[in-house]
Amino acid sequence: MNPTQSARTNSYVFQVELLIESGNNGEALEKLIKALNQGAITDYRILNGIQLGQLIDQRKSELLDRQPVPIAPPAKPNTSASNSGFDSIRAFMKSNKLIRLIVNKGLGIKLSIPCRILNVDEDGNLITVYHVDEKQVYTFRMNEIEDFQD
Predict the structure, then answer these.
(1) What count of other Cβ atoms lies within 10 Å of the Cβ of residue 139?
(2) pLDDT at residue 46 is higher than 80
């Protein structure tokens, strides 16, 4: 070996497609990253995620007799029904009652927050709460709230 040459390892790049089964995309991504970090992989780059629609196309091609299923037009929202969730939240806010919010932030992240409701913005679908343990104020979108308990 020439003294100017050093013993070095070579680097190789592979493109692979992986199928990971999980409850949702966030959990599958978490499993992938965990597997990549535990392996003997020096570096990686995740270029894209799930390709939607393949399972739908496969199931359509497997159908023997296709019969259309009638779909009723969506019902117009009832304003009294849509406000009922806000009404109970407003009642908690007026009574300054301690409640527990279950918030889904996505990617498998769920928070359980003991809090008092400070404000409800029906137009923006926002709720502002005071976290009694952390002594912090947080604002969440209403679609992030899975449940609340008094």
Answers:
(1) 12
(2) no
Domains of the chain are 12-69 (no CATH), 87-149 (2.30.30.100)
DSSP letters spanning 69-114: PP-PPPPPPPHHHHHHHHHHHHHHHHHT--EEEEEEEETTEEEEEE
Cβ partners under 8 Å of residue 83, min gap 6: 122
14: amino acid identity, one letter = F
pTM: 0.44
Q: Which of 104, 106, 97 minimizes the C-alpha distance to 132?
A: 97
Write out pLDDT tens, residues 93-102.
888 889 998 8
